[in-house]
Amino acid sequence: xxxxxxxxxxxxxxxxxxxxxxxxxxxxxxxxxxxxxxxxxxxxxxxxxxxxxxxxxxxxxxxxxxxxxxxxxxxxxxxxxxxxxxxxxxxxxxxxxxxxxxxxxxxxxxxxxxxxxxxxxxxxxxxxxxxxxxxxxxxxxxxxxxxxxxxxxxxxxxxxxxxxxxxxxxxxxxxxxxxxxxxxxxxxxxxxxxxxxxxxxxxxxxxxxxxxxxxxxxxxxxxxxxxxxxxxxxxxxxxxxxxxxxxxxxxxxxxxxxxxxxxxxxx
Length: 267
What we know:
This protein has helices spanning 6-14, 27-35, 37-59, 62-77, 80-97, 104-112, 118-136, 141-162, 174-179, 185-237, 242-265. By secondary structure, it is an all-alpha fold. α3 packs antiparallel against α8, α5 packs across α7 and α7 packs parallel to α11 (242-265). The longest helix is centred in the C-terminal third of the chain and has 53 residues, at 185-237. The chain starts with 5 loop residues before the first helix and ends with a helix. The mean pLDDT is 90.
């Protein structure tokens, strides 16, 4: 089992793609799997983007194509990142209520519960609406494919940053603790540079120099927002959790899609 490629481990941890059972996970294996998470996201983005692009080409129904691309993205990961986003939103809502007993330990306990609160539901709905609307506003099938593909990569690259060395886990044990405090600055920087190259190259292909500069700017906006939000979550929760990782994927992806769609739709 230890001879499995780290990408297979990443697929087992972060998607519903069938892989051999993962047992007796060692820290070094978790670290290697995490390093391949953005690549997994790229592949998921390509598959979901192809679904949307084909529908857009065949039917000329951009809204339907956008919705199916979003469904494909969520289907390939079992909506696990949306679940993390909802739990994180519920935890923040608990802390923000300022009721007696609503401290950080209680917020983390709420995040671990299987049910989803009203804030979590609203957050999921808003996220899916924004993602679908952004993709529906993309001018053509090629743009939709590019947005979904880069979104899959970029959203997961921010997880590497949130799991960088020096960022603690919010609780001992659990899924988040398996990956917290593992990523080196070099790995994080390499993936962010790759994201910039992808955005620039695809932007050039779609719209020349203005497209390249625009999509690079959109990537910078998404990453900057993710970094700021990571700091906020680490401060209020005392570290990262698996839910925080999932929330980062969805928030970064959404900000990227919205920013990139605005850039591509600009005259």
